[in-house]
Design brief:
Distance between the termini: 27 Å
CATH class of the largest domain: Alpha Beta
Bound molecules: 2-deoxy-2-amino glucitol-6-phosphate
CATH topology of the largest domain: Glutamine Phosphoribosylpyrophosphate, subunit 1, domain 1
Number of domains: 3
Largest sheet: 8 strands, antiparallel
Oligomer: single chain
């Protein structure tokens, strides 16, 4: 069940970065550097760290990854500070370089800042500061902000916390910041608007991070700042949280974290992506557990039950999402229309928000997002709400912006997904959407009780079948070796497996940089067939229950043009085996649930190709895990 309240964020053009900080009795360096490694999925163009021991301040920053920062630190870091802040950046404005990297230091050299976000009015603030004698080394808005804070401190004669508050009231934009002042070595000030910020609370020590992963081994107690809140973290004092705008005090809400370290480590796998692919049986089980009650023959989801009338009276469901989540939405279109007989439209959130769509109070909008922070999806939700539509969020990250902005919703319980290429988020999104469709179908009477039971039973068997599908790993690695040098690849599927073809192509593109396209198998003859020759590998999802005979005909057409066929087939299939160059078998299931199984070999195929090509699987070039920019 989602927390229901509205954020007042300005999410335009946010940076997607990770911030980490520490203040306490330990050495800050290892905590901050290890924390940055865990947050690197948020951006990896450049990285930096600032350490302070009460006398010496050392700032070290570099273009490149956290490993580059670590190398540079070995030579440059001489200070063992107990206060430290670090930053890993995904740049949207200006090239990533050493100077633009964070932390940034104020003109006096006293104030140091890390910042995730963008200050939209930085140019006018900068001009004003220049007239007051300030100078700037970088092109960043962040350096403007730290000097603005310094200017307020000087002009108003206030302490750091107050200066940060006054300065933030002058800025337009989004931020999660951590700031310290050399003159106050026992204090760090943090604030957020539109970018996440968590404070870990230990024994006389505090941790700051974009998410809790950097401090999980030190403490399970955390405060998640809300938008427009500022916290003064002072050693030996209680944390003071205030509203930035009106200065009112906020009671800190300390929550016990439910994530453990194992969930965010590789646990013996070479990559997070591979670990996450293998976690799918558990993730799917965790997602339906407590919701699918087979013995009682019911599906129970609070967000759906509480809003049943809205769903049942809806003229249509509009699904908004991006990337892999959009593909899950396409699968859901088939499930909702097939089982619950509700018309569905699936929209790219980025298009939906800009094309003046017709939305009414009788529409239900389902927003799907793993991270819950995707800017386009968030904006699409706001648009839908402004037109009176009811918005239901399907998110993985608890408490994320989309989860909170939605009127109601359901979480996927995939656990943290760290690999930039989404895998277990996709299958758990489909699981949640299937549960919703089944529940609505039951309420509408569009599914018979025996079909309903069959679906429940089969959904419960999916984790075992995914395990079975994962056993083809070795075979898939061999196939990957044959096709790793291909320049293009086609993915074909029909019906429920058309979105799986799109997803397979996206996976290959994003981690191996091989051009790939997904198509409905029957569309091939309307254009893409021209691409087929003996150099073109074509992955065809040809399972028994999905228009099998038609897909077999499509395979014949490919074969006559000498294309190389990799068939994803149902166990025991002989017909496709006789035609294809390779077949990967998957266990049989209902057609409506088949995407949960057929997607597994496609994930593994792209994974192995990327590994064989020596690509950075978990952090592919140009991408970041949460796309918080338009
Ligand atoms: C998936 O592999 C991609 N990295 C990307 O397409 C992703 O699914 C998309 O950016 C949406 O993210 P979200 O689910 O967090 O909203």
């Amino acid at each position: 069940m989602l927390v229901l309240f509205i954020l007042h964020t300005n999410t335009k053009n946010k940076f997607m970065c990770g911030i980490v900080g520490y203040i306490g009795q330990r050495e800050a360096y290892p905590i901050v550097i290890e924390g940055l490694k865990r947050l690197e999925y948020r951006g990896y163009d450049s990285a930096g760290i600032a350490l302070y021991d009460g006398t010496n301040l050392k700032v070290c920053k570099t273009k490149g990854k956290v490993s580059d920062l670590e190398k540079r630190s070995e030579e440059e870091i001489t200070t063992i500070g107990n206060i430290g802040i670090g930053h890993t950046r995904w740049a949207t404005h200006g090239v990533p370089n050493d100077v633009n990297s964070h932390p940034h230091v104020s003109n006096s050299g006293n104030l140091v800042i890390i910042h995730n976000g963008i200050i939209e009015n930085y140019e006018s603030l900068k001009k004003e500061l220049i007239t007051r004698g300030y100078s700037f080394k970088s092109e960043t808005d962040t350096e403007v902000l730290i000097n603005l804070i310094e200017d307020v401190q000087k002009q108003e004669g206030v302490k750091l916390g107050k200066a940060v508050q006054i300065a933030l009231n002058q800025v337009i934009g989004a931020y999660a910041i951590a700031v310290f002042d050399k003159n106050r070595p026992d204090e760090v000030v943090v604030a957020r608007l539109g970018s996440p910020l968590a404070i870990g609370i230990g024994e006389n020590e505090f941790f700051i991070a974009s998410d809790a992963s950097p401090f999980l081994e030190y403490t399970k107690n955390a405060i998640y700042l809300e938008d427009e809140e500022l916290a003064i973290i002072h050693l030996n004092k209680e944390i003071k949280i205030r509203k930035i705008q009106d200065d009112s005090l906020v009671d800190p809400y300390i929550q016990e974290l439910q994530i453990n370290l194992e969930q965010i480590e590789k646990n013996g796998f070479d990559h997070f992506m591979l670990k996450e692919i293998h976690e799918q049986p558990k993730a799917i089980t965790d997602t339906y557990r407590g919701r699918l009650l087979r013995n009682e023959a019911i599906i129970k989801m609070a967000g759906v039950e509480d809003n049943m009338k809205k769903f049942l009276n809806a003229n249509r469901i509009i699904i908004v999402a991006c990337g892999t989540s959009w593909h899950a939405g396409l699968v859901a279109e088939y499930i909702f229309e097939d089982l619950a007989r509700i018309p569905v439209e699936v929209e790219y959130a980025s298009e939906f928000r800009y094309r003046n769509p017709i939305i009414t109070e009788k529409d239900v909008v389902i927003a799907i997002s793993q991270s819950g922070e995707t800017a386009d999806t968030l904006a699409a939700i706001k648009l839908a709400k402004s037109k009176g539509a009811f918005v239901f969020g399907v998110c993985n990250v608890v408490g994320s912006s989309i989860a909170r902005e939605s009127d109601a919703g359901a979480y996927t319980h995939a656990g943290p997904e760290i690999g930039v290429a989404s895998t277990k988020a996709f299958t758990t999104q489909i699981t949640v959407l299937t549960l919703i469709a089944l529940r609505l179908a039951r309420a509408k009477g569009t599914i018979s009780s025996s079909d309903f039971r069959t679906h429940m039973l089969e959904l419960e068997l999916i984790p075992k079948k995914v395990e079975q599908a994962l056993k083809s790993d070795k075979l898939i690695a061999e196939i990957a070796d044959i096709y790793k040098n291909s320049r293009n690849c086609l993915y074909l599927g029909r019906g429920y497996n058309f979105p799986v073809a799109l997803e397979g192509a996206l996976k290959l593109k994003e981690i191996s940089y091989i051009h790939a396209e997904g198509y409905p198998a029957a569309e091939m003859k309307h254009g893409p067939i021209a691409l087929i020759d003996e150099n073109m590998p074509i992955v065809v999802i040809a399972t028994k229950k999905g228009h099998y005979e038609k897909v077999v005909s499509n395979i014949q057409e490919i074969k006559s043009r000498k294309g190389k066929i990799i068939g994803i087939v149902t166990e025991g299939d002989e017909q496709v085996r006789a035609l294809a160059d390779h077949v990967i078998e998957v266990p049989e299931t209902l057609e409506s649930l088949s995407p949960l199984i057929t997607t597994i070999p496609l994930q593994l195929l792209s994974y192995h190709i990327a590994v064989l090509l020596g690509k950075n699987v978990d952090q592919p070039r140009n991408l970041a895990k949460s796309v918080t920019v338009e």
